[in-house]
Amino acid sequence: MSNLNVSLSPHVHSGNSVRKSMLDVLIALAPALCVSFYYYGLGAVVVTLTSVVSCVLFEYLIEKFILKTEVRIGDLSAVLTGVLLAFNVPSNLPVWIIIIGALIAIGVGKMTFGGLGQNIFNPALVGRVFLLVAFPAQMTTWPQPMQQAHYTDVTTGATPLYLFQQYVAGDTEALQQMPSALDMLLGMHGGSLGEVCALALIIGGIYMLCRKTITWHIPVSILLAAFCTAFLCYGFDIHLALQQILAGGLMLGAIYMATDYVTSPVTPRGQLLYGCLIGVLAILIRRFGSYPEGMSFAILMLNACSPLINKYIKPRRFGVTK
Amino acid sequence: MKTFRMGGVHPAANKLSAGVAIRPIDIPALVAIPMAQNLGAPSKPVVVKGDKVKVGTVIAEPGGFLSSYIHSSVSGTVDKIDMVPDATGKKVPAVFIKVEGDEWEDTIDRSEDLVRELKITDPKAITDRIFHSGIVGMGGATFPTQVKLAPPPGMKCEVVIINAVECEPYLTSDHSLMLEHAEEILVGVTALMCAMQVRKAIIGIEANKPDAIALMTQKAAAYKGITIQPLKLKYPQGGEKQLIDACIGKQVPSGGLPIATGALVQNVGTAFAVYQAVQKNKPLIDRIVTVTGKSLAHPSNFLARIGIPIANLIEAAGGLPEDTGKVISGGPMMGKAMPEVNSYMVKGCSGILIMPNAEARRKQAEPCLRCAKCVDVCPMGLSPLFISKYSQKQMWAEAEEERIYDCIECGSCSFTCPSHRPLLDWIRQGKGKVMGIMRARAAEAKAKAEAEKAKAEAK
Ligand code: SF4
Ligand code: SF4
Fold this sequence. Notes:
The complex is a heterodimer. Chain A is an all-alpha fold. Helices cover 61% and strands 1% of the residues of chain A. Chain A has 14 helices and 2 strands, in the order H-H-H-H-H-E-E-H-H-H-H-H-H-H-H-H. Chain B has a 6-stranded mixed beta sheet with strand order 1-14-13-17-15-16, with helices on both faces. Chain B has a 4-stranded antiparallel beta sheet with strand order 2-8-7-4, with no helix packed on it. In chain B, helix 3 (173-180) packs parallel to helix 5. Chain B is globular and about 60 Å long. At the A-B interface, helix 1 of A face strand 15, strand 16, helix 10, helix 13 and helix 14 of B. The structure holds iron/sulfur cluster (2 copies). The site of one iron/sulfur cluster has 15 residues of chain B, from helix 13 and helix 14.
C-alpha cells in the first residue's frame, strides 16, 4: 500500500493546455477564414492549405530529424502559425513562395530559438516580412474580391492603404476611390487574405476575450493608439482615422498577431505600453515610411522590446506601496 | 459581493460531503497523540508509561513560546511514548494511550446546552483559558492561538475577521460546523472580540454556502457587532491576506504582520473551539474532519478525537478504494500527499481527500509559453514564470528581487499553467533558500552593528 503518489500541492489542475489555447485562437480565426474563402474562393483555399500543411510538416521534420527532440505538432501551434501566415499574404501568391515563407516562419522564426516559447519574434510575421523583402512584386499585388474561381490569374487592384499613400503623396483623386468605412468593416476591398473583413476579426476577438484566451489590454491599446495617431497624422479627420484602423493588417495584427503569448509582455501594464507603441509605430510607418503597411514591422520591433518591458514593468505587488 | 482584488482561480468545488450531517467516529482501543501539532516548537510530554488519564487531562506542555498544551482525547492508561509518522511521513513522538471507558475530567461541562452569556469576561483570562485549552489555528495553519491574540506592542486590533470561507475544493468541515453549531460559533466570536477588546467582527463566507450564510445571518442578529460578509467565490480567499483584503479592503504590507491592518483573523473552527474552552471548559480534544473523494463510497463529515488513526476515518467513510492513487491531508490545492495511510488525527487536519489513480498523476511539463496566465492569477502580484525559473537556475539574487518571499504557496500558478509546469515546486524551494539567505544577512548585519557599538563604547 505504499504505491501512493506523493507529488506536492496543488493536486488538481485547471485543465488548461497549450493545445486548448491554440485551438481557441483557431476557432476565433474561423469566421475570418470563412469570409476569405467566400471573397477569394480558390486562391484562399490553396494558400491556406499550403501554408498550414507546410508549417506543420517543417516543424515535424525539424523536430524529428534536425533537433531530434520530441515532436510537438500536436499542440497546434504550427497550425496556427500556418493560418496566420496565410492570412498575411495575398490570395494569389504562388504555392512555392508560400512554402518558402513557411520554411522561414517555422525554421528561422521558431525553431532556431528552440521552439515554442523560446522565440523572440512572431514566427508568422518573420515569414511574412521575409517574403515581403524577397518577393516584393508578388507580395504587393492584391486580388480584388469576388473572383472565386481564380487563383493566380485573378485581377488585382489597389488596396485602401495604397490609396492612402497616393493621397498623402498629393493625389487627391485617391480618396474618391477609397471604400467606405462600412465596406472596409465588411471586407469589400483588396488586401491580404485574412485581413480584409474587420468585422469577422472582431467577432473572433470577442470570442477569445470571453474564453479568456487573451486579455483586452493589447488589442484595445493598439487600436486606441493607432486611432489617435492616425487622427493626428491625417489632418484631424475622424473618418480617415477610422479607415486607417480598419484598413490593412491593423485589426488582424492587433487581435491575433500582437497578442501572441510568447512574444508579448506578461504584465497588464507592460501589455498596455507594448500595445500603445505598436499602434503609434504602425501608423507612423504607414504615414512616413516607404511601405504602405506598417503593422508587421511595428509588431516585430515591439516583439524585440518585450524582454525589456518584462524587465522594467513588474506586476502590481500585493502589499507594496511605492 | 466582495472579494480580494488581485489574481485568483476557480477550481471545481466538488463539495461532495456538503450537507452530510456530522457523525462521531468510534473510539478505537488505542490512540496515538502526536506531540507536534502546532506551528512552532513541539510540545513536551508530561506523562509516562502507566499513568492514568481522563479525557481532558494535560499530557503535554508547550515546548517553547510558540507552542501549545496537548490534552488526552480518551480515558485510559499511557502505554508508551514512541515515534509515529505524521501526514508527510516524518517521524514525530506521540503518546500512546490504551483506551478504557470514556471518562472525562469533571471540570468539563459535557452538556449540550448552549451557554450564551460569556463565563469569562476578562480579556486576559480568556486568552489564558484558550492557552490552557491547547487551541491552535484550526484552518490548517495550527498557529498557537494565544500567541496570535497578543499582538506586538504598538499594534492595535480593530476588528476580528472569522475565516469561514473554506475555499479549498472538497472540504466541508467548516460548512457543516456552521450548519450545526451556528450559535456556538457566534458566542466563540464574542469571546474572541472580548479577548481582543474590539466591538466589531466580520464572518466571511463564500457564496457557494448560501444555507450557512442565511443561517448565520439570522442568528447573528442577536449578537452585537458581528456581521456576516458573503464573499464572491474565488480561491485563495481563505488566505489570511486575501481574506483581510476581501473583507476590509486593506492589504497587509509585504513583510509585515496581518495585524498591521488592524484585523485579527481566526478560523471558524477556532471560534468553535474557543466557545468550548471558554463556556464549557473543554480543551481541544476533537475536531470536525471531512473525509472525501470521488471514488469514496460515503464522503462524510466526522467528529473525530485527536489521535485516532486516519485509516479508521477512511474505513468509516467506506474504506480505501482499490484504485486509490493519492491520499491527501487537507484540500487539493494546499494539502499534503501522504506517503502511507498510517498517521494519526491531529488538531490541524481539516480533511482527508482520496484521489483515484487517474487523477493522482500530473501531466508532463511542457516548455513555458509565456502566456502570462500565472501572472494573472497570482494573488500576491508575483511573476511565477520568472521566479520559478530563477529558483531552477539558482539565481537567488534575482529571485529575491522578484519578491519570491511574498509567495503564499497557494498553488494558483501551477493550477492554471497550460504547459503543466510545476511552478510552485520550484518556487517553494527557491523561497526557502532565499529566506534563509535573507535571515543570514540580517543576522550578520545585526552582529556587525553590535560589534561596532561595543567598539564605540570601548573607546
Ligand atoms: S502559465 Fe505556464 S506557460 Fe504560461 S507563462 Fe506561466 S509558466 Fe509559462
Ligand atoms: S503559489 Fe505563490 S507564486 Fe504561485 S500563485 Fe500562489 S502566491 Fe503566486
